[in-house]
Amino acid sequence: MNEMSEKSYAKVNIFLKISKKRDEYHELVSRFVRVHSLYDTISFIKSSRKAFCIIGNFGCKMETNTVYKAYKLIENFEGVEEFFKNYSVIIDKNIPEFAGLGGGSSNAATFLLMANKYCNLNLSKDELCYIAVKIGADVPFFVYEYDSANVTGIGEIVEKFEEEILDIQTITPKIKCNTGEIFKVFREKFYKQISKEESDRLFKMKSTEILSNFDIKEANDLYEPAISVYSQLEEYAKENWFFSGSGSSFFKVTHVK
Ligand SMILES: C[C@](O)(CO)[C@H](O)COP(=O)(O)OP(=O)(O)OC[C@H]1O[C@@H](n2ccc(N)nc2=O)[C@H](O)[C@@H]1O
Ligand SMILES: Nc1ncnc2c1ncn2[C@@H]1O[C@H](COP(=O)(O)OP(=O)(O)OP(=O)(O)O)[C@@H](O)[C@H]1O
């Protein structure tokens, strides 16, 4: 890694419950945990392209890249446009897309943290979070850089959760899970909302404790809607494997440090 490089980690949702509807969105009650063994690498390298440039292997054009969206939200800050006339953004992708692992969201957050540092913006985590939430629900979690966190709202309320570092293994079936479609089916066929008491109980439990008390359906409210849309996912639901986000990834905790 060169001197201006950072790891952009994946996440899993140890549990993901819905607490209420908010317009076309759903408020979450979820434990996000960082996957230390799975990350993209983002680097700023000197280049004389004279315009903002992202180099990497993406399934989308630059204008829809989450890092480009993050750049557009900070380009008017003092020094940012000038900086990115002289530096290109290189993203070495390892996190699969449409995987429920927060790849694009993590990249946007890591980019914001790096731009804050190298453009000397001096923005606080909360100020960065205010920008992050405009890009996507999972971005704020990555801005705070916690290993484990209790996340509510649409993803903008992130509270650090103290527990041992978890070793997490993931498998990602080659099924592009459409988050919008899965939330739509959840709302139409599987809608339920978790009570405040149950949320408070879950937020106090360690992640390993939750996974030993919940099965895959109980842990993630989006699992049943996901398999009703993508039935072949069910083949991957092995003993001690859980479902992350809106899929397609499954994960299991292999070790607690
Ligand atoms: C499922 C999670 O990955 C959990 O970590 C996130 O909540 C997903 O949030 P996100 O990345 O912002 O989701 P997007 O892929 O931008 O959202 C696609 C669509 O999913 C629906 N959506 C998304 C997030 C949410 N909390 N409620 C929703 O109803 C909305 O219709 C939205 O237009
Ligand atoms: N930096 C990026 N890395 C990967 N995909 C990106 C990126 N920017 C935009 N995308 C596009 O966003 C869409 C979803 O990508 P991805 O699934 O990685 O993002 P995410 O929403 O953060 O993760 P999740 O799978 O947990 O919803 C894909 O269409 C992908 O092409």
UniProtKB/TrEMBL annotation:
<feature type="active site">
    <location>
        <position position="11"/>
    </location>
</feature>
<dbReference type="GO" id="GO:0019288">
    <property type="term" value="P:isopentenyl diphosphate biosynthetic process, methylerythritol 4-phosphate pathway"/>
</dbReference>
<protein>
    <recommendedName>
        <fullName>4-diphosphocytidyl-2-C-methyl-D-erythritol kinase</fullName>
        <ecNumber>2.7.1.148</ecNumber>
    </recommendedName>
</protein>
<dbReference type="InterPro" id="IPR006204">
    <property type="entry name" value="GHMP_kinase_N_dom"/>
</dbReference>
<feature type="domain" description="GHMP kinase N-terminal">
    <location>
        <begin position="65"/>
        <end position="144"/>
    </location>
</feature>
<dbReference type="InterPro" id="IPR014721">
    <property type="entry name" value="Ribsml_uS5_D2-typ_fold_subgr"/>
</dbReference>
<dbReference type="GO" id="GO:0005524">
    <property type="term" value="F:ATP binding"/>
</dbReference>
<dbReference type="Pfam" id="PF00288">
    <property type="entry name" value="GHMP_kinases_N"/>
</dbReference>
<dbReference type="InterPro" id="IPR020568">
    <property type="entry name" value="Ribosomal_Su5_D2-typ_SF"/>
</dbReference>
<keyword id="KW-0067">ATP-binding</keyword>
<comment type="similarity">
    <text>Belongs to the GHMP kinase family. IspE subfamily.</text>
</comment>
<dbReference type="InterPro" id="IPR004424">
    <property type="entry name" value="IspE"/>
</dbReference>
<comment type="pathway">
    <text>Isoprenoid biosynthesis; isopentenyl diphosphate biosynthesis via DXP pathway; isopentenyl diphosphate from 1-deoxy-D-xylulose 5-phosphate: step 3/6.</text>
</comment>
<keyword id="KW-0418">Kinase</keyword>
<dbReference type="InterPro" id="IPR036554">
    <property type="entry name" value="GHMP_kinase_C_sf"/>
</dbReference>
<keyword id="KW-0547">Nucleotide-binding</keyword>
<comment type="function">
    <text>Catalyzes the phosphorylation of the position 2 hydroxy group of 4-diphosphocytidyl-2C-methyl-D-erythritol.</text>
</comment>
<keyword id="KW-0808">Transferase</keyword>
<keyword id="KW-0414">Isoprene biosynthesis</keyword>
<feature type="active site">
    <location>
        <position position="138"/>
    </location>
</feature>
<feature type="binding site">
    <location>
        <begin position="96"/>
        <end position="106"/>
    </location>
    <ligand>
        <name>ATP</name>
    </ligand>
</feature>
<dbReference type="GO" id="GO:0016114">
    <property type="term" value="P:terpenoid biosynthetic process"/>
</dbReference>
<dbReference type="GO" id="GO:0050515">
    <property type="term" value="F:4-(cytidine 5'-diphospho)-2-C-methyl-D-erythritol kinase activity"/>
</dbReference>
